[in-house]
Structures are given as C-alpha cells and as structure tokens.
Amino acid sequence: MSSDLVWRITRSNSSFLVKRNGAQFSREAGNLRNLHSFKYSAAANKTVDITAAANGVQVTLARAKVGANKPSTHTVSTVVSGSTRAAAKSVKNLVSTYRGDLLSAALARVSRINESKKAPKAIKAKKVRGAVAKKQL
Questions:
Q1: What is the distance, to the nearest Å, from the Cα of residue 47 to the centroid of all Cα atoms in its chain?
Q2: Is pLDDT above 80 for 23?
C-alpha cells in the first residue's frame, strides 16, 4: 500500500491519536515530535525512532515495505554514546541520509534525552548579609 493511502485511512481513526485543546498529538513509537501529521507518522513513512539507552541514545531506523516477512531485518538499531556534541554528530550522519526532513527533530530529541540524563546542579544556600540577618540564624 502506498504511504498516502495509509495516511488517508489512519489520519482520522487511529488508536494513537490524542486530541487536546484543539491540537492533535500522536503516541506512535517512531513519531519524533509526537504530532499527528503525515510527515511524522510512523505508520505511513520510513521511521526514525530515538530513545534513551543505558549508556547513551538508541537510534532505530525502520525501513518501509522492506522485510515485512522478516521483522528482524526490518529495523536497524544503533546505540550512540559520548558527549552531547558527539552524539548529535553521529545522529546527524545516520539520519541525514535516511530521512533528511527529520534531522532537526532528531537532533532536538537527542539533546533533550542527554539533558535529562544529567544530574541536577546542587542549589547553593543563599548568602545572608547584615548583622540582623546573621543573628536570626
């Protein structure tokens, strides 16, 4: 089936469709922006899925219409580790040749995942000034 036909069938009736405050979102696994649109749809297009891994970011590329009878050959997964800049460069190299239109969304997802893995900074105690304030401690 063509990707346009799949989208026309699933765009108004999908189990992944979420409507909130006039906006339409999607809960599909390969949807990078979680928006319900043809561009980001995992059911209608080749997908790029970026998830958190134990030691970095896992990038999964799923080929459309290839290997339907052999699911193990349908996807290619790669774990990218290292600094945020190195991970972004690796993801850029992987995604740009596969789906160049999703490059900015993929880089944003990698950045957010790496940011969420960082330990929060310690909050310093506020310095007290003045004789009266020091006496209250």
A1: 11
A2: yes
